[in-house]
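Hi F.,

I've been meaning to write this up properly since the lab meeting, where we talked about keeping a consistent format for the predictions we share between groups. The idea is simple: the sequence comes first, exactly as it goes in, then the structure tokens exactly as they come out, then a line or two of notes. No screenshots and no reformatting. I'm using this chain as the first example so we have something concrete to point to.
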Amino acid sequence: MNIVVQLAPRDGAAPKTVYTWDADTDILSASVRLAPAKSGKSGSVEVEGTDGSWIILDLLDEHISGVEIAVWPGVTKREALAMPPTVQDAAVRVPAGGKAPAVTAFEVEIPMSAETDAQERNFHFRLGVPRETSAVRVAQDLLLDVDATNHVAGVWLLNVPPFPDEP
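Output, unedited:
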């Protein structure tokens, strides 16, 4: 897994998470309200599951500004989804690297699985092989699982609104 993050103390409260469902495509978007960009470096990280599923991390100023679930993996529904016992509040940066261009994008392919609670309000996407991780709060309702080498190992979407009813 090649998504490396840098963690730093956060100034102030975690930004809000705003969810949007596209009923025509089943795409769920989670937007994070960040301060205006300073460096102008933006782009995306596309995580493709070996089953064809997709999660896209949108980046603004090298920070996660949103998550899109474009093609869902098979989702395992659990009566109760075990939430992380502790969550670290931090500013999470996805560094572009030395002389990266102003817009960056890269794609990684990795086994991905998804699970949800019985009400389908909390979702956990595991990326790669299971390993020990710590939960880090990116925004109020958006967490990352980060392993000991600061690689992203999972994404949590919390308090997701229900899918819109069909007309």
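Notes:
DSSP finds no helices and 15 strands in the chain.
The chain has one domain: 6-157.

If this format works for you, I'll send the rest the same way.

G.
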